[in-house]
Amino acid sequence: MADRAAFAVLVLNQISKAGLERLPAERYAIGKDIAQPDAILVRSADMHAMEIPASVQAIARAGAGTNNIPVRALDARGVPVFNAPGGNANAVKELVLAGMLMAARNLGAAQRFVAAIDAKQAGLDRLIEEGKKPFAGFELCSRTLGVIGLGKVGCLVADAAIKLGMQVLGFDPEITVDAAWSLPSQVQRAASVEDVLRNAQLVTLHVPLLAATRHLVKAQNLRLMRPDSVLLNFSREGVVDDAAVVAALDAGQLGSYVCDFPNAAILGHPRVIALPHLGASTREAEDNCARMVADQLRDFLEHGNIRNAVNFPEVSMARGSNWRVAIANANVPNMLGQISTAMAEGGLNIHNMVNKSRGDMAYTLVDVDSAVDASVLERIRAIEGVLAVRYLPLT
Ligand SMILES: NC(=O)c1ccc[n+]([C@@H]2O[C@H](COP(=O)([O-])OP(=O)(O)OC[C@H]3O[C@@H](n4cnc5c(N)ncnc54)[C@H](O)[C@@H]3O)[C@@H](O)[C@H]2O)c1
Ligand SMILES: O=C(O)CC[C@@H](O)C(=O)O
C-alpha cells in the first residue's frame, strides 16, 4: 500500500454498516472527524460550500443523485465521484407506487379524517360511512402514467405500472441501450415533456437535477396538464417549480402533487402529499448503495480501477505486476506519448496499460516491471493537462 498502513475515509452522513464493513479496519480508518481524508463517503450532505481537503482522491455517493457534490470542481482536481446506479431504484419505485395510490385514493386526507374522530363519540359507524364520501378516488388500472426520465428508477416504475394495468408514456432523450432493452414493449415513446404532460393523467419525474432539468416542469407546461392529474416528484427539489405547482393546484389546473422534497412553498397545501426525502430510505437500498460504493472506492484506492464514476470513464485492469501508476488527465492530444516517454526515460518498462476517455476527462493505468522512482512521478505530474497521479505498489 502506498507509503501508509491505512486509508482514511471521512463519512459525512449515516452510511450502512453493510458497506462500511467492506473497508477492513486494518487498512481503513473511517470517521466523522478526519482532517486529511483520502476519500469521502456521503449521501445527501451538501458539499458545495465545503472546503474539500487537497488529500481527497475520491468521493463516493451512497445513492444516485450527485447534485450535492461539486463534480466539475473535482474534475479539475482529477478526483472521481462514484455513485451507486440502481442501488436504490426498487425502493424509489415502491414509494412512487405508494404515492400514486395515496393521490388516487385520497389516502392522506382520508387518514387525517379518521385520525381526528373522537373514538368515544356515539354513532361512530355512521359518522365514518357518511364522512368517507369526499375521499372517493379513481383506479390506476387503465389510466395513463407519464414517466419522464427512463433510467434505473424510471424503467422500474414503467414496468410496475404496466403490471398494474396502466398505459405508460415514456420520455428520455438520452435513454441508454440497456434501459431501452429493460423497458416493457408496451411503453409508448413520447416526443417531449409537453407530450407527456398533455397526454398522461399521472406524471412521474425521474431525472437528475442538472442545469437542463431545473424547472423542467413549470408554469408554461403545467397548463397542459389535465385538471384532475397527479404530478409526482421523486427526482429533486428544483426539477419542478414548486411555486408554479401551488398556483396550478389553486387554479384547478392540477389535481395533486406528490413530492419527496418538502419546502415552504408546498408545506400545508391540502392537495400536496409531501414526504421527507424517503425514496431511498429502506434497509435494502441503504445496504445496496453502501456496499456498491464501498467496493468501488476500495478498488479505486487500492488498485486505481474506476467503476461507476459520474465524471470518469470505466477503467479496470487486472494487476499485471506489483507496480501501478494511475493518472487522471485532460482528454487532449499526446498525453500518452508524454507519460510513456517520462516512464521510459526513468528506466521503466511498461508491462500493461489501459487508457480511456469520457468527455474532457481521460484516465490511464500503467503497470510497470519495476518500482517507480518519485522523480518519475513528479515528471508525470508536471506534464500540462495531468490532473492527478497515484502510485499504487502492491506490498
Ligand atoms: N427520492 C429519492 O430518495 C431518490 C432516490 C434515488 C434517486 N433520486 C433522484 O432520481 C434521479 C434519477 O435516478 P436514477 O437512479 O433513475 O438515475 P439514472 O441516471 O439511472 O436515470 C436518469 C435518467 O434521466 C434521463 N434524463 C436526463 N435528462 C432528461 C430530460 N431532460 N428529460 C428526460 N429524461 C432525462 C437520463 O437520460 C437517464 O436515463 C437521481 O438523479 C436523483 O436525483 C431520488
Ligand atoms: O441517501 C438518501 O437517503 C437519498 C438518496 C437519493 O436522493 C439518491 O439520489 O440516491
Automatic annotation (TrEMBL):
<dbReference type="InterPro" id="IPR006140">
    <property type="entry name" value="D-isomer_DH_NAD-bd"/>
</dbReference>
<dbReference type="InterPro" id="IPR002912">
    <property type="entry name" value="ACT_dom"/>
</dbReference>
<keyword id="KW-0520">NAD</keyword>
<dbReference type="InterPro" id="IPR036291">
    <property type="entry name" value="NAD(P)-bd_dom_sf"/>
</dbReference>
<dbReference type="InterPro" id="IPR006139">
    <property type="entry name" value="D-isomer_2_OHA_DH_cat_dom"/>
</dbReference>
<comment type="pathway">
    <text>Amino-acid biosynthesis; L-serine biosynthesis; L-serine from 3-phospho-D-glycerate: step 1/3.</text>
</comment>
<comment type="similarity">
    <text>Belongs to the D-isomer specific 2-hydroxyacid dehydrogenase family.</text>
</comment>
<keyword id="KW-0560">Oxidoreductase</keyword>
<comment type="function">
    <text>Catalyzes the reversible oxidation of 3-phospho-D-glycerate to 3-phosphonooxypyruvate, the first step of the phosphorylated L-serine biosynthesis pathway. Also catalyzes the reversible oxidation of 2-hydroxyglutarate to 2-oxoglutarate.</text>
</comment>
<dbReference type="InterPro" id="IPR045865">
    <property type="entry name" value="ACT-like_dom_sf"/>
</dbReference>
<protein>
    <recommendedName>
        <fullName>D-3-phosphoglycerate dehydrogenase</fullName>
        <ecNumber>1.1.1.399</ecNumber>
        <ecNumber>1.1.1.95</ecNumber>
    </recommendedName>
</protein>
<feature type="domain" description="ACT">
    <location>
        <begin position="324"/>
        <end position="394"/>
    </location>
</feature>
<dbReference type="InterPro" id="IPR029752">
    <property type="entry name" value="D-isomer_DH_CS1"/>
</dbReference>
<dbReference type="Pfam" id="PF02826">
    <property type="entry name" value="2-Hacid_dh_C"/>
</dbReference>
<dbReference type="Pfam" id="PF00389">
    <property type="entry name" value="2-Hacid_dh"/>
</dbReference>
